[in-house]
Amino acid sequence: MTATRTHALDAALDILRDKGVLAVTHGSVGKATGISRSTLYRHWPEVSGLRNDAFRRAARSSGGAPETNGPLRADLTWTLGFLLTALNETPWGQIAPQVIAAAATDADAREVINDFMSDRIATVEAIFAAAEARGELQPGTPVRPLVEMAIAVPYFRKLIAGLPLDDDWLASHVDLICRLAEKSSQG
Amino acid sequence: MTATRTHALDAALDILRDKGVLAVTHGSVGKATGISRSTLYRHWPEVSGLRNDAFRRAARSSGGAPETNGPLRADLTWTLGFLLTALNETPWGQIAPQVIAAAATDADAREVINDFMSDRIATVEAIFAAAEARGELQPGTPVRPLVEMAIAVPYFRKLIAGLPLDDDWLASHVDLICRLAEKSSQG
DNA sequence: CTGTTACGCAACAATTTGTTGCATAGAGGC
DNA sequence: GCCTCTATGCAACAAATTGTTGCGTAACAG
Q1: Out of 1.10.357.10, 3.40.50.620, 1.10.3630.10, 3.40.50.150, which CATH number does the structure's domain B63-186 have?
Q2: Which of A149, B131, B171, B186 would disulfide-bridge B72, Cβ 3.0–4.6 Å?
Q3: Which positions in chain A touch B80 (Cβ < 8 Å)?
Q4: From the CA of A162, how many Å to the nearest CA of chain B?
Q5: Residue A156 Cα distances to A27, A149, B58, B106, angstroms
Q6: Nucleotides, chain D, CB distance < 7 Å
């Protein structure tokens, strides 16, 4: 990744956040960075490539997987806290809606978000699997629905409903998920 | 609402679905409908107005509130089934991501989605309140988190994760929500 | 019949988009 | 030092798009 490319993509992310996908063009990025349009066209012949590279850059900005060593409640609090931070404080949280919208008409954008969500789902799924291995859950408990609930609600609140995500909310959310996990185990 | 306006907005919705917000302009709508650009500019001096009116039209397309008379499981199945249909088969499901993305930079779009989600949340909240009034839930059960879970997961699956929503999935989802409601009541 | 309203058409300037040819600066090999 | 290759900037250009305006006309209500 050359300096020119990173410079361009950083600017693209700023534009994406402030004005939307709509505003990310060779022209606007050139104006913001001082890079000439011809250079930008050489790097990204199509504007969708430029946008999608910016998407990928933002997706990477939201960080990696935390350590998991139990108990379930602690692991969930840590991972979902991580998700909250990503949504609240990294570029990803601010441009995710744009990626989602682009995914409706652009296969590359769809791939970006699919890769990203697969990672997140796998991370949380591993946490439940570890809890089951430790005997915190009944063997055979279907964890996939629990995983989706754990992740879906913060995304829904932040991106769709426009509701805040804070630590108090996180605590009660984790509480609910844990109770549901126990219930699923017992029922 | 004149014939010209509805005609224009219908075309705008088609373009929105097929090509994204990006593609909805006075020019593209004019080409699609045969309506002259000057007329479209008279109706919507700014392109955001045109887009937002299309958003509102789609939001209305997803229909109204169902009857609720218990038991909780039946009401949830009915309402969430309604939501599934809306997401799978009406314009709303197809353009909601675009509205969400637009909401990040456009106050009008934010209002459209806020109004829409408030309605949906209130509908499901009323179902839980009725269940509580019938004695199906412990008095004082905090229903808001349950409501958000009930709605968030289908939205997450459809819009964000790109996963399917079918009747089998709905049944297990309702099942989980109901068990959680009981658990919340008891615990 | 007359005034009003909504619409289409044509023309226009300004901007944006995509492309190209040419010049230059820097890195690395000989 | 000299050469070559690559990345970049600059300027110019055609084409398409955007936003605006003036004019003519058809429909409709009074």
Answers
A1: 1.10.357.10
A2: B131
A3: none
A4: 8
A5: 34, 10, 20, 19
A6: 7-12, 17-22
